[in-house]
Each structure stands twice: as structure tokens, then as C-alpha cells.
UniProtKB/TrEMBL annotation:
One Pfam family in the UniProt entry: Response_reg
Name the record gives this protein: Response regulator
Keyword annotations from UniProtKB, A to Z: Phosphoprotein
PROSITE patterns (UniProt xref): RESPONSE_REGULATORY
InterPro entries found in the cross-reference section: Bact_response_regulator, CheY-like_superfamily, Sig_transdc_resp-reg_receiver
Keyword Phosphoprotein tagged: yes
UniProt lineage: Bacteria, Bacillati, Bacillota, Bacilli, Bacillales
Length: 122
């Protein structure tokens, strides 16, 4: 069982992803925005952080930038979800420090498979 943080401002999508990942046996913490995600990151350790690119308060990129400044958290794997799927957007995300990128819309089952692949790399 992995500890996963999901930061997604769309409630329906967040609920769908949480249900899917919990069905796979993972412990999922939910954040509605980037600020809440950072609070959880400071309090706990996660095996994987899944961030929405465009969130209120702090974007996914801003969360990654702050994560890189936390010495004990900077190596946490990050999967960025985004409706921005142009090559330039993907490059920006990967250059910022996310290890993985997934375009919206996506199948929750495909996301669960991707999460398993990422966790297996650790």
C-alpha cells in the first residue's frame, strides 16, 4: 500500500481518482488546491504526489518548485495531470521537476496502471 497525495480542484474527478486508487489498496490523501497540498506535504511523507497543473492558490508547477526546496521531500515522485497537453506544456512540467505527465481527460483505470508502474520503479 502506497501513500499518495492527490491535489485536484475538480471534485468529481478527485472523487473518481481517489475511489480508483483506494480500490487498488492505496492510502490516498486529498487536497483541493496547491496550498492545501503543500500543507499535507510538510506534515507527511508520500510515495507519490499527483498534482493538477491548473489549481487555485498555487499551481502544480508552484507546488513542485516549493517541493524542490524541501530537502527531505525533494526526491518524492510527482505525476502531473493536465488538460494542457501540448509538447511545450509537457516539457515545462518535466523541466520543473515532475517525473511523469498525464494528459486529461484520462481513464481512471489507465491512471491506476500508470501509478503502479511509477511505484514499481521505486
Amino acid at each position: 500500500m502506497a501513500k499518495i497525495l492527490l491535489a485536484e480542484d475538480e471534485e468529481v474527478l478527485r472523487m473518481l481518482v481517489v475511489d480508483t486508487l483506494e480500490d487498488e489498496g492505496h492510502d490516498v490523501t486529498e487536497a483541493e488546491n496547491g496550498e492545501e497540498a503543500l500543507e499535507f506535504i510538510k506534515e507527511r511523507d508520500f510515495d507519490l504526489i499527483i498534482l493538477d497543473y491548473m489549481m487555485p492558490v498555487f499551481t502544480g508547477l508552484e507546488v513542485i518548485q516549493q517541493l524542490k526546496e524541501m530537502k527531505d521531500k525533494r526526491h518524492t515522485k510527482v505525476l502531473m495531470l493536465s488538460a494542457k497537453s501540448q509538447a511545450a506544456d509537457q516539457s515545462r512540467v518535466l523541466e520543473a521537476g515532475a517525473a511523469y505527465f498525464m494528459s486529461k481527460p484520462f481513464s481512471p483505470l489507465l491512471l491506476a496502471e500508470r501509478v503502479e508502474e511509477i511505484l514499481d520503479e521505486q
